[in-house]
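Data card: per-record layout.
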Amino acid sequence: MQRDERLLLILYLINVLQPVDASSLATEYRGSVKSASTDTTRSAGELSAAVKRLVKNRLVFESKGRYAVTAKGLHRITTVGLNRSRDKNRLFNLKKML
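The structure for this 98-residue chain is written out next.
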């Protein structure tokens, strides 16, 4: 998986799960990377650096140990057509709650 693809995957996961803490993000990321059959040990180390890069580029912001996508990050996700998954995920969660 290329670096840009990895950043997009992390941005996508944060968008779907937001607000998400680092441990939940790491769990979801490991599952995604494992299915792509790459080295999960190396990938786990890269996750922290990638999240910091997304925060630095103002695509994601961090508050009280949780991450969420900014408007700029949402725009980036929209350009590749991945923005609708969050709404679908929310509907499933609402259905479980009712």
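Known properties of this structure: The chain has a mean pLDDT of 78. Residues 3-97 form a domain with the Arc Repressor Mutant, subunit A fold (CATH 1.10.10.10).

See the next section for split statistics.
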